[in-house]
Amino acid sequence: MTDELIEALLAGEHRALARTITKIEDRAPGYRELVSRLHEHTGDADVIGVTGSPGAGKSTLVDKLAEAYREQGLTVGVIAIDPSSPFTGGAVLGDRIRMASNTGDMDVFFRSMSARGSLGGLSTATTDAVKALDAFGKDKVIIETVGAGQNEVDIVRTADTVAVLVPPGSGDDVQMLKAGILEIADLFVVNKADLDGADRTVHELREMIEGRRNEVAVATGHHGAVETEPDGTDTDTDGEHSWTPPIVETVAKTGEGVGELCSVLEDHAEYLTASGQLEAKARSRYAAEIRTLLREDASDLLAAEVDRRGGIEAFVDRVMDRETDPYAVSDEILAPIEECVRERRDT
């Protein structure tokens, strides 16, 4: 069955792609082998993360962005992270009527994925789904997240380029960005730029970006003059190149500014390739993915061992009775695993 599914996916059958992502999201039996075998066919898609506070217009902008890419003759895959239903665990908004501009276009594949209250599992499932879209042959893969928080920071690290949307006239949103989102933003989009307060938001973002750039200059010892090129790249007096997040103003509902957004995204993709950051990002992602899988697999292994020994409550009873302590319990459970690892290392 796996052979047939992979063959169909690589042949460009959208039904096979949908089945593969369902298998990945549900963590169904065999999904690991499926993703492992798809890996060799990945590495060609341009992955874009779109995040920002609720109400910033992410869904509408993603729709227009996908439409713009289709006009360029490119194929698009969209993964939209939705909040979870408290009743079914599935995506509340499901396959939302937010990709209206691309309805019926088979070269735009849209999929909602439920957050299900599980950050770690969601991050891994999203990464695996991106691999499926990449192996399928999508030119652009867009990850749209449900909001701007730690969950989104972890998820969009799967992307090569991250666009952070900020609604106009919201000083609180700009202040929130200083808490951490700034570090992952490759560009900012002030959407709904036709509303009052857009100019002020752009100004606040520029001040924040400039302040961040000065902090980095001090931390790295680069105090020379810096010139920012129109494409977002910086050149300092030492001849070193870096990237300063540009600010793009859009009105997603009309498509205004989407062309400029596409251009900035392309500029960043070219910068990543020219600077070597594309490979560096890929290495960092794979390292993080390996660590995550190790944590998840080790946790499952240890949970099974705890259950085999009578369950966690049995150990808690012993701790409560002062027969042992949490550190000793941990050592006791890990001892056979450590011994096995040592034996294999020494052979």
Structure in words:
By secondary structure, the chain is of the alpha/beta class. It has 2 domains: 41-275, P-loop containing nucleotide triphosphate hydrolases (Rossmann fold, 3-Layer(aba) Sandwich), CATH 3.40.50; 294-346, no CATH class. It has 12 helices and 10 strands. The chain has a 7-stranded parallel beta sheet with strand order 3-2-4-1-5-6-10, with helices on both faces. Strands 7-8-9 form a 3-stranded antiparallel beta sheet, with helices on one face. Strand 5, helix 7 and strand 6 form a beta-alpha-beta unit. Helix 4 (58-71) packs across helix 9 (258-275). The two termini are 37 Å apart. 33% of the residues are buried.
What are the key terms here?
347 residues, alpha/beta, Rossmann fold, 2 domains, 7-stranded parallel β-sheet, 3-stranded antiparallel β-sheet, 10 strands, globular
